[in-house]
Amino acid sequence: MSDVVAEQPPQSPQGDTGFARLAMVTIDCADPVALASFYGELLGWETRHVDEHFAILDNPEGGSPLGFGRVTGYRPEPWTEPDGSKHFHLDFYVDDLEESTAKALALGATEPDYQHGRTLKVLIDPAGHPFGLAPLE
C-alpha cells in the first residue's frame, strides 16, 4: 500500500482572494467639469485632471479616486420615483446630517420627495445621480 496524498492547491492569505484592485470609480455625466466641482466641494478633494471630456478627483486618504466622464446624450437615472431604477449610488458618512444636507443642497444637489425613511438622506447630484448622506455614529 502506498502513501499517496492528493495535492492541495496553495491557500491564499485570508482576504487575498481577488486578482484586481479598484483603480477608480467613473461616473457618467453630461458635464464632467461641473460634476467634479460639485463632488470636490462635497468631499474636500483636489482635482487631479480636468478637461471638457473627463475630470478626476484624488482621494486624500489614499483610496481610489473619482472620475467623471462626458457621455453624449446623457440622461439622468429615473431613480427619483419610488419604482425607478438606478445604476449605482454613492453613500457618504457625515458628522451632522442636517448641516451636511443643507451644504449639499447649497452646492446644487436636490432632495427628492421619495426617501427610504431611514437615517440615510438621499439627495440627487447636479447630473441626476442619487447619493446618500448618513450620520457617522
TrEMBL record:
- Check the record and name the InterPro entries matching this protein: Glyas_Bleomycin-R_OHBP_Dase, Glyoxalase_6
- Pfam families for the chain: Glyoxalase_6 (PF18029)
Which Gene3D superfamilies does this UniProt record tie to the protein?
2,3-Dihydroxybiphenyl 1,2-Dioxygenase, domain 1
Query: In which domain of life is the source organism classified?
Result: Bacteria
Instruction: Give every Glyoxalase-like domain span.
Output: 24-133
Q: Which PANTHER family match?
A: CONSERVED PROTEIN, HYPOTHETICAL FUSION PROTEIN
Record-given protein name: Glyoxalase
What species is given as this protein's source? Kitasatospora aureofaciens (Streptomyces aureofaciens)
Taxonomy of the source species = Bacteria, Bacillati, Actinomycetota, Actinomycetes, Kitasatosporales
